[in-house]
Design goal:
The chain is an alpha+beta fold. It contains eight helices and 16 strands. Helix 6 packs across helix 8. The longest helix is centred in the last third of the chain and has 16 residues. The structure holds pyridoxal-5'-phosphate (PLP). Pyridoxal-5'-phosphate binds next to helix 6 and strand 13.
Length: 287
């Protein structure tokens, strides 16, 4: 596992960041999680563009141009040297004082970690995930806009913790009006009588890049994915439910709060997963 920090690539276990970094003290910063698949970094420029949008949305200047960050990701991926891996790219507000005032911070800091990919375990993937509806809600866009991929994931962490402690694989987060937002770190798709539907960002879904890629794959096969609000009822009544994400991959949902969802057949997931390797190859940057 390798990490880039302050111009050097080192073993991630030996990488040290200052205790006064506001990314650590206040979760003040933004990040990307990027998949490396078959020796290619998946949709790197789209991830960099989303990083830049997240940073702009919280008034954080990136410490260097996107092209330089691109090079850092590829160098760190090369140093890690595995064809299947996961990139965690972070920009923190930088070192400041023990006050949350971000104007007291010196300069934004970039960290790039490349690590083995940790998907849901194989048994859970094969049987399908058991989801639990989280007690905590996805914040509204006038609170902490879920489109900002910020370092402040406590809401998602608590949802995941609650689900894991109760024996579930992952949590389903609803928004303030009870519409489905997403899972703890993945987007949700449901087949409603043949129509593939996913919640819109305005309901609290991160505009996931795996999600966007599934729109492309479905369109190329002659189907459109609809973006509209979903409720727990929709998921329980759906023919098929699955999650998508850089870390999660494409994975079936078998139950919600103990009630089985979908059937044994997962035609959407099967078709999308078949098309995935070619799509990833065409949209990946080799290192
Ligand atoms: C909260 C959340 N939703 C959805 C996703 C999926 O987005 P992507 O496909 O870009 O990884 C992620 C990241 O993995 C996430 O953290």
């Amino acid at each position: 596992m390798k990490a880039w920090y302050e111009g050097r690539i080192v073993d991630a276990a030996n990488c040290r960041i200052p205790v006064l970094d506001h990314g650590l003290l206040y979760g003040d910063g933004v990040f990307e999680g990027i998949r490396i698949s078959a020796g290619r970094v998946f949709r790197l420029d789209c991830h960099l563009a989303r990083l830049a949008r997240s940073a702009r949305a919280i008034g954080l200047d990136l410490p260097c141009p996107l092209d330089t960050i691109r090079g850092i990701v590829l160098d760190t991926a090369r140093a890690h040297g595995e064809a299947e891996a996961y990139v965690r790219l972070l920009v923190t507000r930088g070192v400041g004082e023990l006050t949350l005032d971000p104007t007291a911070c010196d300069e934004p800091r970039l960290i790039c970690i490349v690590a083995p990919i940790r998907l849901f375990d194989e048994a859970a993937r094969r049987r399908g995930l058991r989801l639990m509806t989280a007690a905590v809600r996805r914040p509204r866009s006038d609170q902490l806009d879920p489109q900002v991929k910020s370092l402040n994931y406590l809401n998602n962490v608590l949802a995941k913790r609650d689900a894991r402690l109760k024996g579930f694989d992952d949590a389903l987060l609803l928004n303030d009006v009870g519409h489905v937002a997403e899972a703890s770190a993945a987007n949700v798709f449901a087949d409603l009588d043949g129509e593939l539907v996913t919640p819109p960002p305005s309901d609290g879904a991160l505009p996931g890049l795996t999600r966007a890629s599934l729109f492309d794959i479905a369109r190329a096969a002659g189907s459109e994915v609809s973006q509209r609000s979903l409720t727990r009822y929709d998921l329980l009544a759906a023919r098929e439910v699955f999650l998508s994400g850089s870390g999660a991959g494409l994975v079936a949902v078998a139950s919600l709060d103990g009630t089985a969802v979908g059937g044994a057949d997962r035609p959407w997931l099967a078709a999308l997963a078949r098309a995935w390797p070619d799509y990833a190859q065409a949209h990946g940057t080799p290192f």
